[in-house]
Amino acid sequence: xxxxxxxxxxxxxxxxxxxxxxxxxVKARSQRQQIVRRFVRNxxxxxxxxxxxxxxxxxxxxxxxxxxxxxxxxxxxQSVSPGVxxxxxxxxxxxxxxxxGLMIGVQRSLFIVLLFIVIALPLGLLVGALAGYFGRWxxxxxxRFVDLILTVPLLVVLIVVASNFGEARTPLGVGxxxxxxxxxxxxxxxxxQFLSLREKEYxxxxxxxxxxxxxxxxxxxxPNALGSLIVWTTLAAATAIILEASLTYLGFGxxxxxxxxxxxxxxxxxxxxxxxxxxxxFPGITLLVIVLSINLIGDGIRDAFDPSNRRVRA
Length: 314
Description:
68% of the residues lie in helices and 0% in strands. With 314 residues, the chain is mainly alpha-helical.
């Protein structure tokens, strides 16, 4: 018997005859795996993530490679145009390298965003969870307090607070101020989520089994509201960057030149936009790219968590 005949007989022996069903193994994916798969296949979200990671590398790894400090002042290279005398993006009126300033500005702006989220996320989650889960007078008291604060525009509140605490006009102070007044929308979102989730069957089952309120909130309700929390985090981060730039432009944000931010660089470059446009446009474009990338990530995460999204197969 030849080798070809032997292979043919072996294949025929392995092939099931008529009426014999083949067995297929289907590997089930968890909800987390499906969400990650949807996000990875979302071109918009992945584009935003790649751009955001590049900005992180630019802000935190760039100074290690570039080697020029923003605090260094060169009296012989004041207001130098981009690409002249070794300044890729030019210099300001006192001879500081704008590229080094952008790197520090990205660091400070992202630090403000991180501090904002660390403060606002727990506050909004706590207030919204208590109001939505317990309802009745707890809901009325907490939500009326939130509504009272929301009647005043957030930017006005931030300006009043910053004007009365001049020593807080640093990246640390601005981040704390934004965090203390930036959780109101999240509280309303979490409340609406909890009002719906607390009526689900698994919550009633947990009550019947004797689970405590804290266990139900942390083990059942918060995980099921995680999608809304993540989407809010990404969109609120972009809003925090814009608010910081707005405060600084109005003179109530970061006012220490040694602790610069993108908002500070844009504010300083506005007056020189007609004569030295690089001082305004480069920080402004960097600011817009950060906000756009975070918004794209938020859109991708929202689509990934949406169970009705059928554009990308899980």
